[in-house]
Each structure stands twice: as structure tokens, then as C-alpha cells.
Amino acid sequence: MNKLEELGWDYSVQDIEKQMIARVITVQKNSFRISDGNLEFIAHLSGKFLNEAIDSFDFPAVGDWVEVQKLSGERKAVIKRVLPRKSQFVRQAAGVKTEAQLVAANIDTVFIVNSMNNDLSIRRIERYILSTYESGATPVVVLTKKDECSLDKVTEIISQVEKVAIGVPIVAISSVTRDGIRDLLEFLPPKRTGALLGSSGVGKSTLVNVLLGKDVQHTKDVREDDSKGRHTTTYREMFLLPNGALLIDTPGMRELQLWEGESAIESTFQDVGLLVEGCRFIDCQHDTEPGCSIKEAIEAGKLSEDRFHSYIKLQRELAYEKRKQDQKAQLVEKNRWKRVFKDQKSKYKKRNIR
Ligand SMILES: Nc1nc2c(ncn2[C@@H]2O[C@H](COP(=O)(O)OP(=O)(O)OP(=O)(O)O)[C@@H](O)[C@H]2O)c(=O)[nH]1
Ligand SMILES: [Zn+2]
Questions:
Q1: Neighbours of 256 (CB within 10 A)
Q2: Does the annotation flag 295 for ligand binding?
Q3: Which of 258, 284, 315 is the last residue in one of the domains?
Q4: 114 CB contacts (<8 Å, ≥6 apart)?
Q5: Are 301 and 282 in contact (CB under 8 A)?
Q6: Residue 282 CA: which ligand is closest?
Q7: Is 232 annotated as a binding residue?
Q8: Residue 200 in marked binding region
Q9: Burial class (CB in 10 A: 0-12, 13-18, 19+), 302
Q10: Tens of pLDDT along 49-71?
């Protein structure tokens, strides 16, 4: 009996046997832990795969469906190709070299997790919602640590979040009292794949444990035999919840938050950022526009012109980097589909000959 459906499989492919499909549940450097719903396998990439792969988008990520060749008698497999993705989460690694990195694939719902007790940033939530839509998944905002807030505060925070999360469900929860957990599970029905996104300390691991009903996350005691008789420890990145939903909690998703450059600018230039928010026009160039808070602050001596200029300079650099990355990501995606198409064409040709 094939249990792929239990891993969220809901595609129809004609040209592969189901027996040859599996889902990636953990990615380590060069090996992948995959599951077919019945058994887990340690998998490696085929030589052909390695030869043809160009960038990180070509490689399997957590959540990917892959075509594999299972090795008989062993819990091992060879990955031959990645099946087309429904959604993909990309991390923009800022630095000298710009690189868009794939962190997870085929996520249905992204839970944007924020704690209500401190440093709740509406702008961050707004950005996460954007990245979620860009990935092809659906966002849900989760506000944690409800037990630490008064009802008034909860109501106030929700109304703040609603302003940037238009049409996005908002759920307030407590992992301590379990208040709201059932509401959250409504967005995680059986066979659907969710993922957690949010800063450190907001309560993601605690939530995973509550959803699982046991302490698994971060226990790092899952042992695997790598056939050389050596034991390595790892921890899983995709969980099967008791209700049959799947939940991805990878370090990669955690780091996605985001782009160091952006958060650096936000914390270093908090004062300027606040002023900009006060400008009358959202797209104020702080030049000749009426109601510009920046100009007012400079004139009043509250903001130095130097500081404002270094802020503008950094923003420009970041915008430039981001544009470069976006273009690269687009190109990579275009080439990938070209190859997939070519691949399929050659397959059909072969089939016609037979
Ligand atoms: N009062 C209260 N505390 C919570 C709740 N959820 C988590 N915490 C606490 O918040 C702290 C951080 O929780 P974690 O689950 O480790 O947060 P995380 O998001 O996984 O953080 P990283 O692992 O660093 O990414 C811990 O001390 C938790 O006990 C909650 O609902 N209510
Ligand atoms: Zn302005």
C-alpha cells in the first residue's frame, strides 16, 4: 500500500510510478532523508543529477517531491530529479556575492509567528506576508504568548496587525494554556503542509511541541545509521502532526527572516525610519514634498543631514542588491523551466518511438 497521500501528495503524474516518488523531510549537506509514507530512506543525488545541477534551486529542499530509485534491501535511495514545485521559499543571502537560496518547497500555509509580549514589529509582519505570497503559499499570522497579555492588549494588537494583514487570518494563541490552538489547527488540516516563520524566541519550538503533543523538536536524538557503523545525530525538519497535517520547521525558514541588511538598517536607523513613517506621502522622496517629516526634523535640528544621507545611501545599496537578486532568481527559474520542458519533450519523443 502506498501512503504518499499521507505525506500531502495530491498531484497526478502519469509518467512516474508512485513507487518511485518520495518527499524530502530533512536536508543535510550531501544527503537527504526522504519518506514514501511507509519508510524513511537516506538518499543521495544521482551522478547525472549532480552533473546537471547548476544552482541551489536545482537541489532538493525540505518539502520537495523527488523521483527516486530505491536500493533493494537497504533503506537507501538515489534521487533522480525534483518534481515541479507548487511553492518555494527563497532566502536572500546578502553579502559580497548575491545568492538566492532555496529553503523549503511545496508549503501550503506559512504561519508568521510573532510574540505579543515584546518587539512586535508590524513592518516585519508586512514583509513576511509579502515573502509568503511571493513563495506561492498562503499566510496566516500567529500571535503568541496570549497568556502574558490582557484581553485589551490582545484586541489592540490584533487591530494593529489587521491594518497590514488585509485578508490574512490572524490567530492569537498561548502554548501554555493552549488557548487558540484549536483555531490554529483549522489552518492545518490533514495532508496539508504548513511552515513556521518568525524571529528567535517568539515560541516556534514550544508551538511545535504543543502541536505534536510531545517533546520532539530540538531534542536532536534521532539516530541514523550511515552504514559505516558510525552514528550521527540529526534533527528532523518536517513533522507529521497527530491530525495528519505536515509541519515544516527548518533552520532555513528561521533565517529567512530576513535579509540581514534590511533588519540592520531598521535597527540602526530606527529614528529615521520613524520619521519617514510620519511623512504625508508614502512615496515621499524627502525633497520638495509638503508634509515631509524628514525635512522638518532637519530644519529643526533634530536630525543631522549626514545621518539622513547615510541612511539614503544604505537604502539605495540595498535596493540595488535586491534588484540584482530578483533578476538572478528570475533567470534561474526561467532556465529551470526550460530544462524541465526539454526533459519532458525528449521523454515523449522516446515514448513515441516505442
Ligand atoms: N508565557 C508564554 N511563554 C511562551 C509561550 N510560548 C513560548 N514561550 C516561551 O518563550 C521562550 C522562547 O520559546 P521558543 O519556543 O524556544 O522560541 P523559538 O521561536 O523556537 O526560538 P528559537 O528556537 O530561538 O528560534 C521560551 O522560554 C518559552 O517557554 C507562550 O505561549 N506563553
Ligand atoms: Zn519625507
A1: 23
A2: no
A3: 258
A4: 120, 121, 124, 125, 141, 142, 143, 144, 198, 199, 202
A5: no
A6: 2
A7: no
A8: yes
A9: exposed
A10: 999 888 778 899 999 999 999 99
Angle in degrees, 0-180, between the axes of helices 260-268 and 270-278, rounded to the nearest 10: 80
Domain that holds residue 296: 261-331
Residues 181 and 209 in one domain: yes
Pocket of ligand 1 (CB under 6 A): 144-145, 147-148, 174-176, 198, 200-206, 254
DSSP state of 147: G
Can you tell me the ipTM of this complex? Answer: 0.95
Q: Which has the minimum average pLDDT: 193-202, 297-306, 315-324, 339-348?
A: 339-348
Nearest CA to ligand 1 atom 1: 145
C-beta of residue 37 within 8 angstroms of C-beta of residue 3: yes
More confident residue, 331 or 107: 107
Residue ID of nearest Cα to ligand 1 atom 10? 203
